[in-house]
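Worked example 2:
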Amino acid sequence: MRHPAGWPRARAAALGALAVGALALGSMTAHAQAPTTLKMQATWPASLTLYENFTMWADRVGKLSAGTLKIETMPAGQVVPAFEVLDATHKKVLDGAHAWAAYWTGKNKAAVLFTGGPGGTFGMDFIDAMGWMYEGGGLELYQEFYQKELKLNVVAFPVLPAGPQAFGWFKRPIKSLADFKGMKCRQTGIAAEVWQRMGMQTVNMPGGEIIPSAQRGVIDCAEWVGGVEDLRLGFHNVWKYHYTPGMHESVTIAELLFNGDVWKSLNAQQQEWIKSAATETFYRWWARWQKQNAEALKELQEKHNVQILRTPPEVLVEFLKTWDALAKEESEKNPFFKKVLDSQRAYASVVVPAKRFYFPPYSFAANYYFPEKAAAGKAAAKKN
């Protein structure tokens, strides 16, 4: 075969161009796959299961992205104090945070509504509350709250179901409302204001400070979460009366926060990895946590001689009444609070009655297969 004149030079030029193109493509690919790292801090110590929700989510993001998006998780206090992570995220001191919106009720009481809110959010459970977030406009209101109401450069997503939470730990039996009046108890968020109206003295503090404060006599009682969380913090070493359930956080949801500029700097796929991992973590961690709670209650009773007792119904009913009154007052002076509360009520008014109709009470089959040992609880109460 005969080649046209100059063919060797043309072939060499073409090969050279291909080589240069390959090098450029390789450089671009390497650049595209260079890991992006976000530095985020939690509001809780690394020893708690709440922090494990944080690391589970970070691990899922790493795996979904094949290591190209990394989350550096840090416990409370590593960069800023626990309750300063929101402002630190806004200022880009942190790329983001793992927190709980009710910590910010001092800025605007509507914050608590994005955790599910006291009183069980009109009877909704976790699935319903997440339904409101994703199917009822809640997620859009969540962004509006931070960005327009608080004027913070922050983006938020739900990630952590931390309930239903117990009424709390006490140094003596609680048989009526009168029994806890005047007691100084660790409570937080707007629930603390409800308890104050019911006669309790409240003190707000991070989880890691509860036991030292109790040992110094600063507080007489405390609410944290319940189950495995309280076991890990060592509440049983200070108190032996543990009451459940509570209506202050029967459905409570914690959050992921991102600096707005950091969020916008991520491409669409990276944002989807983060959101998908958050949704998966919410449900996977919840299932694991419920088993851990069951095991913790067994250990608290059998190994540490803790009395697990039912919260007096009058306390629960009074809490709902007091919360409703407070929410009504806040709605009258805070238009955004009313806007969110009305949105939740509208969603719940459709979902809750229908769900109550279709679903049998949890106790129906539970009591059939595992009869409640009510006698033991009554006997323990009588002794005291």
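Residues 268-302 form the longest helix (35 residues). The first strand starts at residue 36 and ends at 42.
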